[in-house]
């Protein structure tokens, strides 16, 4: 058969909107070869003791730290993030590999012992095999670490497809993984949506996908009976009571504009009581004006996302719109820069309320009561993250418990660490990222029971 030509994907710098290079988009032969390499590497990798896998993962983390500048440069090229954001995410990625290098050596086990008379039973946690990972463009490094680190620590091999617009950083991670972990243990497979479809439908044992709800539904359908872990975005409510801390607005503005708002767990919908609606709008507007595109946060990632963002904002029925500034020089050469924005006085069924906007934007709604605020907060299909802001700790904790979200914060937002699990509900998907619990996403338990053949002890009577 003639060799199938591999199309090139043009890479765009989101800061300028101009081409910065290209990558071949893998097709069936390349996908098949990558999965086959992972399959060949699997027996030796899974046979390693947790101690040895841990040692190699620590070596990978060291390589990441030693080449932190190169990782940050690649991250910025694909996303346009400010230098401080990219550097911080490289540090977090290395920390995640170190966390799972330790966690795999300390896994708790289910009960074992003589659970049936005359028998001894125990449980083995076994890797699933070859994991197909699909990584989004908003956090090319951190999302790769969230998925790949626990999968590798658990004894699996991984074929990871980066987003079409941001292959650079994951390619470097795969190079260092080859050095630290071995050939075929972690492979990067650059490409487009068709590449992702081929990987999901390929000979992998599990698919871990992070992306949009629509794409997640397609992934689940293509995966069939295989295990799937889906993190599918959010539309986070932020319930602000009249006694909220003084720094609430500054905290929310900073969280909303981090990564230009392109985060599944970012604050999205501010819900106040009628009594503090006007003051909330004033405080939030002032805080968002302080966040400057090009200084405090970067551009949107790509032309499609910018067009989608503009469509949602243009179709909103908001009567009040507050916009921040763009730093001098940012956007003069093009690019997908959008200012920090607040939309208020809008109906509950407004597109900016119901859809995940994925940009530096907050909506503000007023509720007539706490009950109504909870109903608004839980009134969208997504259920990934939420926050409550009040000085009254018992009230805040009680309210946080009523919000339907996989992760809830009180008087903070986007505070995450490797030790705490993160996962969605409803249209936000299912499965667990982060924490030791994520190891079990990529493992299956096997119960082993042995009949004891030894003679019974002599009677004492």
UniProtKB/TrEMBL annotation:
Pfam families noted in UniProt: Aldedh (PF00171)
Active site feature: 231
Keywords: Oxidoreductase
Cited PROSITE patterns: ALDEHYDE_DEHYDR_GLU (PS00687)
Region feature Disordered, mapped onto this chain: 1-27
Every Aldehyde dehydrogenase domain range: 11-448
GO molecular function, one term: oxidoreductase activity, acting on the aldehyde or oxo group of donors, NAD or NADP as acceptor
Family under the similarity heading: Belongs to the aldehyde dehydrogenase family.
Protein name: Aldehyde dehydrogenase family protein
């Amino acid at each position: 058969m003639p060799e199938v030509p591999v199309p090139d994907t043009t890479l765009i710098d989101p800061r300028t909107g101009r081409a910065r290079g290209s990558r071949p988009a893998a097709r069936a032969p390349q996908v098949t070869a990558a999965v086959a390499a992972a399959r060949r590497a699997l027996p030796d990798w899974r046979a390693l003791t947790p101690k040895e896998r841990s040692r190699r993962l620590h070596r990978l983390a060291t390589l990441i730290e030693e080449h932190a500048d190169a990782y940050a440069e690649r991250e910025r090229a694909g996303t346009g993030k400010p230098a401080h954001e990219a550097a911080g995410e490289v540090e977090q990625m290395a920390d995640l590999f170190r966390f799972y290098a330790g966690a795999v050596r300390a896994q708790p086990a289910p009960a074992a012992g003589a659970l049936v008379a005359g028998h001894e039973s125990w449980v083995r946690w076994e890797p699933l095999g070859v994991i197909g990972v699909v990584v989004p463009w908003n956090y090319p490094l951190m999302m790769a670490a969230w998925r790949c680190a626990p999968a590798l620590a658990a004894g699996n091999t991984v074929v990871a497809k980066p987003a079409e617009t941001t292959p650079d950083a994951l390619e470097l991670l795969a190079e260092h993984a080859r050095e630290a972990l071995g050939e075929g243990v972690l492979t990067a497979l650059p490409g487009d949506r068709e590449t992702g479809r081929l990987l999901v439908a390929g000979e992998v044992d599990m698919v871990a996908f992070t992306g949009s709800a629509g794409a997640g539904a397609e992934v689940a359908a293509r995966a069939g009976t295989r295990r799937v872990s889906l993190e599918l975005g959010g539309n986070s409510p932020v319930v602000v009571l009249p006694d909220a801390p003084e720094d609430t607005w500054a905290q929310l503005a900073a969280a909303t504009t981090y990564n230009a708002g392109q985060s599944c767990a970012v604050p999205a919908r501010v819900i106040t009581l009628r009594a503090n609606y006007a003051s909330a709008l004033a405080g939030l507007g002032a805080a968002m004006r302080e966040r400057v595109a090009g200084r405090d946060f970067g551009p949107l990632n790509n032309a499609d996302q910018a067009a989608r963002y503009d469509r949602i904002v243009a179709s909103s029925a908001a009567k009040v719109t507050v916009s921040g500034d763009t730093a001098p020089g940012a956007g003069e050469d093009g690019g997908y820069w959008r200012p920090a924005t607040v939309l208020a006085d809008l109906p509950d069924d407004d597109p900016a309320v119901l859809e995940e906007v994925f940009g530096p934007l907050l909506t503000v709604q007023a509720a007539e009561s706490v009950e109504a605020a909870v109903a608004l907060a839980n009134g969208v299909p997504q259920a990934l993250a939420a926050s409550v802001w009040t000085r009254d700790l018992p009230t805040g904790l009680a309210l946080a418990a009523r919000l339907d979200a996989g992760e809830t914060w009180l008087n903070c937002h986007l505070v995450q660490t490797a030790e705490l699990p993160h996962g969605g509900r409803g249209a936000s998907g299912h499965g667990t990222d982060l924490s030791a619990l994520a190891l079990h996403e990529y493992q299956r338990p096997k119960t082993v029971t042995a009949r004891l053949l030894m003679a019974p002890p002599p009677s004492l009577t």
